[in-house]
Amino acid sequence: MKKFTIPLFAVLLLSAAACKKNGVSLNGNVSASEAADILAGSLSSNSYGFINLSDDATVRSQTEFDAKLTCGSTRSDTITRSSPAGAATSYSYSLGYSYTLNCNTSNLPDNVTGKVNYSGTFNSPHVSSSNKGNGSFTLAGLTPTATVYAFNGSVLRSGSFASKTDTTNHGSINIDLEVHNLILHKPNRDIASGTATFVLTGNVPRKGNFAFTGNVTFNGNGTATLKVNGTNYSINLTTGEKTKI
User: What's the alpha-carbon Rg for the chain, to the nearest Å?
Assistant: First the structure.
């Protein structure tokens, strides 16, 4: 997501491209499995990942649409989210959203575009992270006759991580997630299908930089298939648990 790129992220991407060109794996001793844990945490609902962000955006966008706002009008709100007491994966986030109602050429409400800024932490059995991020999205399918929602957007997350698989692996991370045609059933917002691409970069002190790329396929059964540098994992989108496939 170009407009949210930060200097460290750009440096790491250029380093990754140079290493790939020379056939060198850039991993800073971070394994594909550990990268999958980091990505699963950024996606799953138990750690307040992308699944939660898209759900919040969908609920609020529908509310703004139903309020019959004038075309081009924008509303903003802030929310806080935290995990239930005693949860195996804990999280705490503060978020700010803005929503703009867009109309079609007939001047009828058509879709909502929005932006989000957030910061917080999560702590799962496999990895912990303190991070902040921002993103933008477009949500269609808000009219009463539409049977599904369609979400498209981008989210950038940056911060720190600590692996619990290898406790020597801790440092900085940046995740650039681009989501394409995420389809959600109405009215419950269950995911039916969709895809995403990602770039995960970071640095482990005294071990060096790491970079992973891949894609996500949302399967419509509460799971996603995560491909990390050619290795496939099945991700439970509720718990964040992964299985190599």
Answer: 18
**Tokens describing residue 21:** 């060109």
pTM of the model: 0.85
What's phi and psi for 15, nearest 5 deg?
A: -65, -40
Question: Per DSSP, what are the bridge partners of residue 77?
Answer: 97
Q: Which two tokens stand for residue 92?
A: 């705490």
Q: Is 230 left (phi over 0), alpha (psi -120 to 50) or beta?
A: left
Segment 61-77 mean pLDDT: 92
122: nearest Cα among 134, 114, 130: 130
- For the chain, the straight-line distance linking the first and the last C-alpha, in angstroms and rounded, comes to 29
The first and second tokens of residue 212, run together, are: 């992973």
Contact (Cβ atoms closer than 8 angstroms) between residue 6 and residue 178: no
Q: CA 217 to CA 234: how far, in whole Å?
A: 10
